[in-house]
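Our collaborator T.R. sent over the components below with a one-line note: 'Predict the complex.' Nothing else. No constraints on interfaces, no templates requested, no preferences about which chain binds where. So this is a plain run: every listed entity goes in together, and whatever single assembly comes back becomes the starting point for the next discussion.
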Amino acid sequence: MSRFTRRGLLKTGAAAGVLAATGVPAAAMAKRGGTLRLGIAGANTSDSWDGRTHSDSYMIMLGHGTVFDCLTEVNAAGELVGELAESWEASPDAITWTFNLRKGVTFHNGKPFGADDVIESLQMHTAEGAKSAAKPIVASITEMKKLGEHQVQFTLAAGNADFPYLLSDYHILMFPAGQIEEAIAKGIGTGMYKVESFDPGVRAVVSRVDGHYKDGKAGWFDSIEQIAINDSSARMNALMTGQVDAVNRVDFKTEALLKANPGVEIFEVTGNQHFTFPMLTNTDPYSNVNVRKALKYGINRQEMVDKILLGHGAIGNDHPIGPANQFYHSELEQLEYDPDKASFYLKEAGMDSINVDLSAANAAFPGAVDAAQLYQASASAAGININVTQEPDDGYWSNVWLKKPWCACYWSGRATEDWMFSTAYESGVPWNDSHWENARFQELLITGRAELDTDKRREIYHEMQALMSAEGGTIVPMYANYVDAHSTKLANSGTIGNLWQMDGSRISERWWFA
Amino acid sequence: MTLIVVSLVIFIAVNALPGDFAQAVLGQGATDEAVAAIRKDLGLDQPYFYRYFTWLGGMLTGDLGVSFAQMNFASNMGGTQLKGVLEQIAPRFMNTMFLAGVTAAIAVPFAVILGVLAALYRNSVFDRATNITTLTSISSPEFFLAYILILFLAVLNPVFPSLSNIFEGMGFGERLEKTMLPALTLTLVVTAHMMRMTRAAIINLLASPYIEMARLKGISPMRVIVVHALPNALAPIINVIALNLAYLITGVVVVEVVFVYPGIGQLFVDSVKIRDIPVVQACCLIFAAAYILLNLTADVLSILSNPRLRHPK
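Returned assembly:
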């Protein structure tokens, strides 16, 4: 299991080439050949090559991990490296960013890649009527200027030190300018593999591009067949009977059986994916910080990891920053289950006991209702009476989340601290599911965003995590691991990315047949 | 006429599902504005009766509409090339027909022969064993049978692949091999009904005077059953075969999911999950039409097989 990683490249990506070079020793063992067959969950008949609509693992893997490229890439070690961008530089206020693009790159249809493609591909996300999850990222760019065939300058509305990280987002794929519609229909990208056939929700076949710029560093398979297998037993069976070489989302309940098979290996990483119980802190009794603290000490996090995740996870500390983040505060004091402390804080709030409602449905996360019941049991020792309300799965996100004062929720996490905080914890944003207002926290959020100095940023983000952990309105009981499995015929560099499942969803590029 | 009543039932049932496409697709991102925007794009904000009659009108002119997923995608692209529901369903439907065909080719002769043999050796050990086995298999849930077959024929003895991911351009032999396990599962499910009916129909006739006559003439029991009893028992047998064929088209949902077979059943499940109403409605309608058509065929065939009905006085 890979522990958290440190990523320190910020102001300049000039070192990207050096980092890529350090990847070579592991890759030297790699060899070309073979057809990789993947059995992947998360496929839909509505899937398309439009990066704006990608939301589940099947298309995330095929899109940014196989057929298309982004400007930047988070490598297996968690460092930011250039993908279609070679290097980048920021002005001291982190407002103006200049990107130097890789030269000699062509799309699968032969069109050379350049600055126009970048600008048009980004504009897709803010086009009239477009529903893109990456819209906020692109909307923060006030101006895009083509400085040369292979140089683009972005001006942001406000300084953002994480800007290059944001461009590694799997929605922001590079399409050929002027041919975007055709590229979306056929899947024409600059990636290591070109599309041979694609049947949405069923199957995709891709083959390696000759003379690709990643040659020697990635893309070892001759071709890849990615089969959509949403049913979890069918997926496990396919791996056990050798009809696929790797599968994602291993069912925890059958994991022991898979392990017993000598031809199968499980690979598991703790990433940023976490489960939460957000409370609306502008509603009584959650507006009282002592009540929130009592609730924080009333939950047995280890028990949740053991019983809900069956051990496939790590305990949370009431902030949303995970081990795959750059400035994850691993030394922060861990909140422990302590009924005495919980009842102490309850008394501080002027109460002997309290009755609260917790709304949960398994739509929030698998096992959410069971988790709420475990919480109920552990909190009762401190005089906290949790009444678990089981909500219907359908419409959960519209009718319960953000509406009921206390409920269950999940977040897949974000690649950067600022992104995560400003998605769900900045005051006034639509997804702020705890309505938590803390002046110092908001101030740090704004300062941290434009700060380019790594050490100062670390300090800022560590303080924010500590603030949230102590006083915030969200209980984060656990991080859920990404658990995938592969046949022993496959080999990898030994470092497995933890940003997404399946080695940062780039198994097709990074692995090879042993 | 029946289809129109069916269409009304389908429409009511599908729209009674909790949640809708907008909520299902947006998931956690379902803010009130986003949900309203998608609903407006798809016409989900229109009153029910208006939507029903638009759909019915389209259906009567052979236009089953465009799937929500496609429409949502198109609105992202500025609205161009839309694939109709029919176009989306057609290849999947062909796959399901292929599976049904393979199953029928195995199951129908198998069941009829078993039924005849069971009637011939009625109350023997063979008869009882056949009855027990087929009744057990029909009483078990399909996914359970599927897993049993996977265990014995794919995991322990790798004879057939457990994954039936057939695709266009696959050779017939390979396609047949991949289809074998789901076909066998369905065979186990449908055999009992057909076999029991064959057996019962024949035994029923064996008490008739003309059979007694035949037997008195000294004809062998096998010949009595095949030549004398079977033709007269055909009507109920054909009926039950048609019923089971309809089941092969409509009831394959679970089996297709377990074996990852890209048929209409899997499409149906995917579409229900995201509440893609046009696709769900179209699938339901196809299922209903298959039932009605096969029942009609059964009626026609049983009339043809019965001289009394063929030549009414």
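Summary for T.R.: DSSP finds 19 helices and 19 strands in chain A.
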